[in-house]
């Protein structure tokens, strides 16, 4: 978003504040983080790492960071993420929920507590070392569905093993540039490219078997 805003309004000062010491810190390798940082800074985006907003100011025209720095702003966009809704699992098996609220699972995607073999979890809800994206959630959902059927039939449970292409990600950096990432945990490939302003949504519509939306307004 920071890159898009800077691309649309190059005369505006855009500051991205991130609490971690590097961008894309969960699951992705350092090469991608470095490349995205480089591209954002090339656009003119100021990136502040290892800091949090601790005070938004009474007038709404500035924010104060943990370091004490005050950053003036006309518009504040909060992208602080969300906590997983694991209350149901916690109510039955507290030990299956981590300190961050994510559900601990076995390789079969059954929850960690073996007293609840019939309970599965997938997607952003689970505690996982790999990359959490829509593709991973899709693959995990298929494993869960297959294991429910296997359980009904009394068959051995199937383990979820992320394929190498599951982590493939294309990130837009600005309105017309992109960075593509492919990694398997032991190696990573990062390369730049271009992208359309509509994020190639027409291609996705066709992939889903639908006719691309045409805005005639």
UniProtKB/TrEMBL annotation:
Question: What GO cellular component entries does it have?
Answer: cytoplasm
- Under the GO molecular function aspect, what terms does this record hold? electron-transferring-flavoprotein dehydrogenase activity; flavin adenine dinucleotide binding
The record's InterPro entries line, in alphabetical order, gives: FAD/NAD-bd_sf, FAD/NAD-binding_dom
Domain FAD/NAD(P)-binding residue range list: 11-141
Name one matching Pfam family: Pyr_redox_2
Tell me the protein's name.
FAD/NAD(P)-binding domain-containing protein
């Amino acid at each position: 978003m920071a890159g898009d805003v800077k691309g649309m309004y190059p005369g505006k000062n855009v500051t991205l504040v991130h609490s971690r010491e590097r961008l894309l810190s969960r699951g992705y390798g350092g090469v991608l983080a470095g490349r995205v940082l480089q591209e954002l800074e090339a656009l003119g985006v100021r990136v502040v790492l290892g800091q949090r907003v601790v005070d938004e100011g009474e007038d709404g025209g500035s924010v104060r960071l943990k370091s004490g720095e005050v950053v003036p702003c006309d518009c504040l966009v909060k992208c602080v993420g969300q906590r997983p809704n694991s209350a149901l699992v916690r109510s039955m098996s507290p030990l299956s929920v981590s300190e961050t609220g994510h559900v601990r699972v076995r390789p079969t995607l059954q929850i960690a507590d073996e007293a609840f073999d019939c309970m599965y979890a997938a997607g952003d809800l689970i505690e996982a070392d790999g990359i959490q994206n829509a593709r991973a959630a899709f693959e995990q959902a298929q494993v869960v569905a297959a294991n429910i059927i296997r359980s009904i039939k009394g068959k051995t449970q199937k383990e979820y093993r992320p394929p190498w292409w599951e982590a493939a990600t294309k990130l837009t950096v600005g309105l017309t540039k992109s960075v593509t990432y492919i990694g398997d945990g032991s190696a990573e490939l990062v390369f730049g490219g271009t992208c359309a302003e509509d994020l190639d949504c027409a291609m996705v519509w066709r992939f889903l078997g639908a006719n691309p939306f045409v805005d005639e307004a």
